[in-house]
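Collaborator request, handled under Task 6.
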Amino acid sequence: MTALVEFLDRVTTATKIEYVWTELLKAMDAHGFDRLLYGYTRFKTAQSYGSPEDLLVLTNHPRSYTDRFIGESLYASAPMVRWAANNVGACSWSWVRRNRDLLTPSELRVLEFNQEMGVTAGYTISFPGISPRAQGAIALTARRGIDQDQTDAIWDRHGQTLQQMATVAHLKITTLPFTGARRPLTDRQREALEWVGDGKTTQDIAAIMGLTAATVEKHLRLARAALNVETTAQAVLKASFQNQIFVLPT
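Structure tokens returned to the collaborator:
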């Protein structure tokens, strides 16, 4: 099998986000992109990407970079993040160079920070969203010593394959459970929410699960706390968004 087919086979059969991410890191590193930053949200608005705790962020950048870029929310003013929010497809970071005169002061400060951290050449891929509130993108940073012209040459030869790999990985990731910064649901919490989603009452769920109604209420309360929501309906919706319910066990 070709390297692409082998990659697709491993990714499409992966049962955890970590497995998909490991395969993507190896594939991109083989083509000169050694630092990746992936972000995905289902809670995008016109003003923001939603609460930081609801973001799924995967990266192998060092802490010295992520503590500021992510921890201090510099990404919100990153020029290529703005591009990704308004476009679908792949874009060379030469876009920043061509549009430097149009960058805001905050975007210029992020650009300076990236230059200080050696994040200077690469490509950004923005994925099609499944809803107006969903947004996913990945930044591929070229290995140190590779400039943007060399990066563009790599993309000319392999860009279509790399974009296909990244897109398949993204689509797979969106089908797997993720929990953000909060704790995952327990099996009992998950099952109780699933029965609520199927329209069952607390008394129904108690009979189905062989529990008391008070115990069912406790599982639902703890599920709401784990998901940081106020109502059980919100918990069902958010758990569904995070692929924590109605999923096959692995």
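The cover message to the collaborator said: "DSSP finds eleven helices and five strands in the chain. The two ends are 27 Å apart (CA to CA). Please let us know whether this matches your experimental observations."
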